[in-house]
Write a structure and sequence with these properties.
Layout (H helix, E strand, L loop, with lengths): L1 H12 L18 E5 L2 E5 L5 E7 L1 E2 L7 E5 L2 E5 L5 E7 L1 E2 L6 E6 L2 E6 L4 E7 L1 E2 L7 E5 L2 E5 L5 E4 L3 E2 L7 E4 L8 E4 L13 E2 L6 E6 L2 E6 L4 E6 L2 E7 L2 E6 L2 E5 L5 E3 L3 E4 L7 E6 L4 E7 L2 E7 L2 E6 L5 E7 L1 E2 L6 E5 L15 E5 L4 E6 L1
Antiparallel strand pairs: 1-2, 2-3, 4-5, 5-6, 6-7, 8-9, 9-10, 10-11, 12-13, 13-14, 14-15, 16-17, 17-18, 19-20, 20-21, 21-22, 23-24, 24-25, 25-26, 27-28, 28-31, 29-30, 31-32, 33-34, 34-35, 35-36
């Protein structure tokens, strides 16, 4: 139930952005994941391979370390390809504030950058550390731990990681929805009657009341009035994406229209550019025979391109999937090679620069 609520909240608030496969994080490294002949390695910003493709799976670098999968187990490597944390784990989360959550069997704990187990695997569910605290679940208990593994306070509801000194808490009950924000002591930060809340970004957070969404500041004051729109992600670079009855648009911090267009979908800005999806052709359907039977393939006539903050299309729509720019590059994917491939791992993907030039040609 808790995971279901987490997924629903993430979908509404835009946590699941278009990202076909693991890629760089927040510019803390200029190495990018690539896939060659079914194996994962890394390139630099020029497109040169710097870590030979050899892993079953890999992620972007976080705090100088990247997850890799070897013989079905997860570990971490450094930026030279050296093993920092031996591949011994069944699941993982990226490094955050010096620790990474790892799973052994059915339990989660935390390891440090040198591979030492800092918090023994004991939790049923975890999030990464943010602002010194991490949300965990242990049996019927849900709360936040410090970096010694001690539960600092418990909380009833699905709670996010801390962002800008506050964490969003959403009810686990769909019938009696109540949402609010807590501070580092676990106390409600300010009064407010909300049915759902999102994380803070750029000093603002989306909140729902009476089936309408608005935005509040860190003191709880409503700065953008409640309207019948749906937010998609946090404010980023001064703009936020909202779905409206006639499509999707970007608003500024005053709630005014900043960028409008015939977008099917739009993503938050990163490094001055944002991926947007537009209708470019007709929808099609076809049948494909597989060992399991006939599969009906539906293909929407939409493609992703990139706009700048004036709304100008700077990279024409041509991609099946499009990630955010990090360190001057963005991962883009072309046509899917499978009947249904939501992960993107079987898609031909590459990297482009901010002019749209292909730095790494799409590869499988």
């Amino acid at each position: 139930m808790r995971r279901t609520i987490a997924i629903m909240t993430a979908m509404i608030l835009g946590t699941f952005l278009v990202n076909a496969s693991p890629q760089n994080s927040d510019g803390d490294s200029l190495l990018y994941v690539v896939r060659v002949d079914g194996k994962y390695g890394f390139i630099d910003r020029s497109g040169k391979i710097v870590i030979t493709p050899q892993y079953e799976e890999a992620s972007g670098f976080h705090e100088g370390l990247s997850m890799v999968r070897v013989r079905g187990k997860y570990g971490f490597i450094d930026q030279k390809g050296g093993i920092a944390v031996k591949p011994l784990f069944d699941d993982w989360l990226p490094f955050s504030e010096g620790l990474a959550a790892v799973k052994v069997g059915r339990k989660w704990g935390y390891v440090g950058a040198s591979g030492q187990v800092v918090i023994q695997p004991q939790f049923d569910f975890t999030l990464g550390f943010s602002e010194g605290l991490a949300r965990v679940e242990l049996g019927k208990k849900s709360g936040y731990i410090d970096k010694s593994g001690k539960i600092v306070f418990q909380i009833d509801g699905f709670a996010s990681g801390f962002s800008e000194q506050l964490a969003a808490v959403n009810s686990l009950s769909m019938k009696n929805q109540k949402a609010f924000f807590i501070d580092h002591s676990g106390k409600q930060a300010f009064q407010g009657e909300f049915s759902m809340v999102g994380d803070f970004g750029d000093g603002m957070a989306a909140v729902e009341r009476d089936e309408k969404w608005g935005y509040i500041d860190r003191t709880g004051n409503v700065v953008i009035p409640f309207q019948r729109w749906s937010p998609w992600g946090k404010f980023s670079e001064g703009l936020a994406v909202v779905f409206v009855p006639k499509g999707v648009k970007y608003i500024d911090k005053a709630g005014k229209d900043a960028i409008t267009g015939k977008f099917v979908r739009a993503e938050p800005f990163s490094e001055g550019l944002a991926a947007v999806q537009l209708k470019v052709g007709d929808d099609t359907a076809s049948r494909t025979d597989t060992p399991a039977g006939t599969v009906l393939m539906f293909k929407a006539g939409v493609k992703y391109g990139y706009i700048d903050k004036t709304g100008a299309m700077v990279i024409p729509p041509q991609f099946e999937k499009a990630g955010k720019f990090t360190g001057g590059l963005a991962q883009v994917c072309l046509e899917s090679t499978l009947a249904f491939d939501p992960s993107g791992r079987q898609q031909p993907c590459g990297y482009i620069d901010t002019t749209g030039k292909m730095i790494w040609q799409p590869s499988k």
